[in-house]
Specification:
single chain, 327 residues, alpha/beta, Quinone Oxidoreductase, Chain A, domain 1, Rossmann fold, seven-stranded mixed sheet, six-stranded parallel sheet, 9 helices, 26% strand, globular, binds NADP nicotinamide-adenine-dinucleotide phosphate
Length: 327
């Protein structure tokens, strides 16, 4: 009978999360019963969306929910075989038993690293793909701004826009990430919003205005972009990370959406599941051709998970933040 270590939320953060809000708890996990599998998680995804759930949604004194990739190590159901890889939402724990609900079998691409299925070829990549092409209705050659452009979602959105022949500006809060965006990814302009006032910098970087702003941040970034939107521009609103710790997202100039007839639309990835096969084909091709580059920040072991989430909110990740639990 395996023991599993898991991360519990033990108190709700006010502002930025801290290690005291979490506890590492060990518990016995039963062997798989009839109709069940025992899964060992290999990789855990660390996502900004976890932060709002620490305030409301995530139960106290229970294992934190989150995306993960696991391997079936015992099976007493015909639906899964030992060795199957399964995506699940039961991250932040090492082992769990399941009747299979919420488990999706993954057949990894043999020509790509497994971790890529956790970001560019997985959920964050799909979010970028559908958010930009379906929600944002991107057209070839348009003027585009992507915030958190060096992050898991942002880096893919920015590179898809480049593939479509667009002029692309990205923002980040770190000089090292800015250099990667400029030198490796080839963005047309990069703004470090921590060292340059975002409104002035975006104005200077967008002489032809903006047709699409892929918003990961909200707040001042959205205000700055709204001032630059061209007539009939689109703003797919993917995330509001600047407001996740405080719970507030102030935007003072929303009336600009009227004058410029801007479409501002929030979305979640399940909105465009009909595009998933197209996404997998396109993204696997772009990754193999080196047209989409990526970075990963991988912390080792379950005990590192709270600090990984804290670090993600503080910008300590280059690209996708993951925790590796087993090889
Ligand atoms: N709608 C959906 O279905 C969906 C799905 C996935 C993610 N999202 C959203 O997409 C956004 C990016 O998620 P991700 O998983 O790709 O994370 P990520 O960008 O890889 O990591 C988060 C990054 O956000 C930046 N950041 C933190 N605080 C900030 C602030 N106050 N202002 C500006 N930037 C800040 C930091 O980068 P810097 O060092 O550059 O500041 C940090 O590295 C989030 O808002 C998330 O909630 C939405």
């Amino acid at each position: 009978m395996p023991k599993s270590r898991e991360i519990h939320l033990v108190s709700r953060p006010i502002g930025a999360p801290a290690v005291e809000n979490f506890a590492l708890v060990e518990r016995e996990v039963g062997d798989a019963a009839d109709g069940e599998v025992l899964v060992q998680n290999l990789l855990m995804s660390v996502d900004p969306a976890m932060r709002p759930r620490l305030t409301a949604g995530q139960a106290l004194d229970e294992a934190m929910m989150g995306g993960a990739l696991g391997r079936v190590v015992q099976s007493k159901t015909e639906a899964f075989a030992v060795g199957d890889l399964v995506s699940n939402r039961l991250g932040f724990r090492e082992y769990f038993t399941s009747e299979g609900k919420g488990l999706t079998k993954l057949t990894p691409d043999p020509d790509l690293p497994l971790t890529v299925h956790m970001h560019a070829l997985g959920g964050t990549g799909f979010t970028a793909y559908g958010g930009l092409l379906h929600i944002g209705q991107l057209k070839d050659g348009e003027q585009v701004f992507v915030s958190t452009a060096a992050g898991a979602v942002g880096s893919v959105a920015a590179q898809i826009a480049k593939i479509k022949g667009c002029y692309v500006v990205g923002s980040t809060g770190d000089d090292g990430k800015a250099a990667w965006l400029r030198d490796e990814v080839g963005l047309d302009a990069v703004i470090n919003y921590k060292t340059q006032p975002i409104k002035k910098a975006l104005e200077e970087a967008t002489p032809k205005g903006l047709d699409v702003y892929f918003d990961n941040v909200g707040g001042e970034h959205l205000e700055a972009a709204l001032r630059r939107m061209n007539t009939l521009g689109r703003i797919p609103v993917c995330g509001f990370i600047s407001g996740y710790n405080s719970g507030h997202s102030n935007v003072g100039n929303l009336s600009n959406i009227i004058y410029s007839r801007v479409m501002l639309r929030g979305f979640v990835a399940p909105d465009f599941m009909h595009l998933y096969a197209d996404f997998q084909r396109d993204m696997a091709g772009w990754l193999k051709a080196g047209k989409v580059k990526y970075q990963e920040t991988i912390r080792e072991g379950i005990a590192a998970a709270p600090q990984a989430l804290i670090g993600l909110m503080a910008g300590q990740n280059a690209g996708k933040m993951l925790v590796r639990l087993a090889s």
